[in-house]
Design the sequence.
């Protein structure tokens, strides 16, 4: 099932948070969303999942406008794991995953054998079968994230939306969540912060200031020029010595400081030269000889 | 303990029948215990005679005490306890706040103001019933409190501390309004009666009150039970509930409306009784866990039994005098409330 955004926009009061989003997500693809903090990734995901009503434009799932069908019908098509989902209820992992069956059950429909089977499968797929009877409060961050993903899988939706699922996790849990997401046979839209991890996506969307700057293959999207423009950092693609796979290395750009009345500027990675400029505003020759003195 | 699986009706039915048995026993105790000693046998005879027909040689005075005075009172206490407890449960779940309860959120205070405005100030010109006045007062108070909490919480909406603070402010405001109406419009005798009623009191309760309290309690229980699965979905917040297919606004409107209705009706009959809605759901959660399929009946039954016993205590603790039931519930509830506060701080919940 395709998920399409047409001229999508959302404003908080009069402040536009996202605007002019046109996007088509193909069935079965792993679509990554990257961008700086506050660029509108989470808002876009909430709009795509139908949890926010767009101020402009619309979201279509297949050929249906998701604002025109009931919440329940949306939930059968799209599952979302938002950020910072926590509870004070002493739910077990199994009870949490069972919540995923909610859109398929009427108020009085009992939980059936096939529901049990789906829950069991979701627990197994996310590798938390052994935690099924553990209470929520006893779980680590990675285990909670897996439980949420299992709950979303139990929803049996065609499209899964994940908002920074690797946030606050250690590197092992980050990689195992990503591996899990890659294995899933359904359409996945995922917001990620780590650009190297985003490289594994089928396609990437780059967001900046509430707009979708670019959409395409990861290697075409994450160019040094675009990364500097959007994230305000320098980047350099180096190859993994063994496989030759590209790895991005980052450094802050534009570290300016004052040196003996001269405004200096260290270029990226600090290893080339110090380009200095006279405070009077006239372009000065780069004073390479000063580098060692700095 | 066997793990609870949602919607396993046979299991629910067996536990349901045992709950009814406990409730029945509590009601009989409510009819049996009091200042006038009446043998249990006589109590049984009166109840059997009134409910199933037949005739026993029972003193008409004993008969009147057991049937008209104590039994009707026990049923109203049970309806009131069940209604207030499930209201508290619904508010705690929907607001995701362990301290939410109709009393703390000012709903009871608003209902009192509404009731007093109708009876004392004569608003509505006699066309509006006391219960309707209480219902409107309850809704207005709740809308005000939530509006205030949202305004204080800014765009993020209602957060834990703000709802309670807004509730405290709302309760103070409506209690002040109630006092103002009483001071302005009531004569001395009315004022005395109203103040006694405001503390929570079952003294004047008779059968006509049963026919209001019991159907409303049952109706609200049915409405809330039908939404058990929706309430479960609120465990991770209202956005998570929406992502699970719950129509959040509709569910909140129905359930908060039901909670306000039952609170208002109970307040109009027995006055504002505190702490039942706060403490009972927590006790029930400790017993059966957080899933609403089991939690709602357990909360209802615990609330009903708790208030029947609180009423018995209020009748017999001081010989020759009836203590307002709100005093008894507060004596139990305040320490329990403190415990919840301390545990909440320690991050245990």
Sequence:
């Amino acid at each position: 099932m395709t998920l399409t955004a047409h001229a999508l926009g959302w404003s908080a009061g009069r402040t536009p948070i996202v605007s002019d989003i046109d996007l088509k997500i193909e069935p079965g693809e792993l679509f990554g969303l990257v961008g700086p903090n506050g660029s509108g990734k989470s808002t876009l995901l909430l709009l795509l999942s139908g949890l926010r009503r767009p101020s402009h434009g619309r979201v279509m799932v297949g050929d249906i406008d998701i604002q025109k069908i009931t919440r329940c019908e949306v939930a059968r098509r799209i599952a979302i794991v938002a950020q910072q989902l926590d509870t004070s209820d002493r739910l077990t992992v199994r009870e949490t995953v069972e919540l995923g069956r909610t859109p398929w059950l009427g108020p009085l429909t009992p939980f059936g054998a096939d529901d049990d089977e789906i829950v069991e499968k979701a627990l197994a797929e996310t590798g938390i079968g052994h935690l099924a009877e553990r209470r929520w409060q006893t779980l680590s961050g990675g285990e909670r994230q897996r439980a949420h993903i299992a709950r979303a899988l139990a929803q049996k939706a065609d499209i899964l939306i994940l908002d920074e699922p690797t946030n606050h996790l250690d590197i092992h849990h980050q990689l195992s969540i990503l591996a899990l997401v890659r294995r899933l046979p359904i359409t996945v839209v995922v917001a990620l912060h780590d650009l190297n991890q985003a490289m594994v996506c089928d396609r990437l969307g780059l967001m900046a200031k509430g707009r979708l700057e670019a959409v395409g293959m990861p290697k075409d999207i994450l160019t040094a020029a675009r990364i500097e423009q959007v994230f305000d950092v320098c980047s350099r693609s180096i190859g993994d010595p063994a496989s030759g796979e590209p790895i991005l290395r980052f450094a802050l750009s534009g570290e300016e400081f004052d040196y003996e009345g001269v405004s200096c500027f260290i270029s990226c990675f600090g290893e080339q030269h110090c380009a200095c400029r006279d405070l009077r505003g006239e372009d000065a020759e780069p004073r390479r000889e000063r580098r060692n003195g700095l | 303990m066997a793990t609870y699986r949602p919607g396993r009706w046979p299991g629910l039915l067996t536990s349901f029948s045992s709950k009814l048995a406990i409730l029945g026993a509590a009601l009989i105790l409510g009819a049996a215990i009091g200042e006038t000693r009446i043998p249990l046998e006589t109590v049984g005879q009166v109840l059997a005679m009134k409910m199933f027909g037949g005739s026993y040689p029972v003193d008409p005075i004993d008969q009147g005490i057991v049937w008209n005075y104590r039994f009707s009172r026990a049923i109203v206490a049970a309806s009131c306890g069940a209604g207030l407890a499930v209201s508290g449960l619904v508010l705690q779940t929907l607001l995701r706040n362990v301290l939410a309860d109709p009393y703390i959120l000012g709903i009871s205070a608003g209902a009192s103001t509404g009731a007093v405005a109708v009876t004392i100030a004569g608003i509505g010109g006699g066309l509006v019933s006391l219960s309707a006045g209480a219902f409107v007062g309850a809704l207005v108070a709740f809308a005000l409190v939530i509006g205030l909490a949202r305004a204080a919480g800014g765009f993020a909406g209602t957060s834990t501390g703000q709802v309670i603070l807004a509730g405290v402010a709302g309760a103070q405001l409506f209690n002040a309004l109630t006092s103002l109406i009483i001071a302005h419009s009531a004569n001395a005798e009315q004022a005395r009666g109203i103040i006694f009623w405001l503390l929570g009191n079952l003294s004047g309760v008779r059968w006509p009150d049963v026919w209001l309290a019991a159907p409303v309690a049952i109706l609200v229980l049915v409405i809330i039970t039908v939404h058990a699965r929706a309430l479960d979905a609120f465990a991770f917040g209202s956005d998570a509930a929406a992502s699970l297919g719950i129509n959040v606004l509709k569910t909140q409107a129905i359930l908060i409306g039901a909670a306000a209705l039952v609170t208002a009706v109970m307040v109009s009959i027995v006055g504002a009784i505190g702490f039942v809605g706060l403490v009972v759901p927590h006790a029930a959660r400790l017993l059966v866990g957080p899933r609403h399929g089991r939690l709602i009946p357990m909360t209802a039954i615990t609330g009903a039994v708790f208030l029947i016993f609180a009423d018995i205590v209020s009748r017999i603790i001081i010989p020759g005098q009836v203590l307002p039931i709100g005093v008894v519930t507060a004596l139990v509830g305040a320490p329990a409330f403190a415990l919840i506060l301390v545990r909440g701080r320690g991050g245990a919940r």
In short: The first strand of chain A starts at residue 3 and ends at 12. Chain A touches chain B through 40 residues (CB under 8 Å). Chain A has a mean pLDDT of 86.
